[in-house]
Amino acid sequence: MASPELVMRTDPTPAEIDFLEGRLYEFNSQATGIVDALGLAIFGRDAQGEVVAGLCGHTWGGCCEIRQVWVHEKHRGQRVGRRLLELAETEARRRGCFQIVLATHSFQAPEFYRKLGFEIVDSLPDYPRGHQHLHLRKVLGRPGDTAVEGGSVISLRREQ
Hints:
Elements: H1 14-32, E1 38-45, E2 51-60, E3 63-71, H2 80-94, E4 99-105, H3 110-115, E5 119-125, E6 132-139
Parallel strand pairs: 3-4
Antiparallel strand pairs: 1-2, 2-3, 4-6, 5-6
């Protein structure tokens, strides 16, 4: 069998990224026997329907991983980020998660996350140069405290 041609790209498509994530999930599910992954996304929109805040991640095997959190600078300081995290935590608990994990940088919002009960569990220096890459965790309970409720989709829409 011939080796595949390797092509470097700086701009992979969402479909290509989804493909890789799908293959990793297949491998991870086979290796662990855990097949309860569900995406998690919460968006805040302004009166014109533009996205001004959001949170994306997933739950799997009793864990909630938050990959992105963003609030437009005009809406910072208005508890929008706090509400995003509170809604994510509520949904994580509903899905039976015992912890939430996320990564941030030292120049982003580690103090914000600490105020919400997250603790820094790992720090990588000089990523990027002169800063730290931080892994944070919030413990919600003990593994196995609640049954995972998978497969259903609920609306977390919160009217103003």
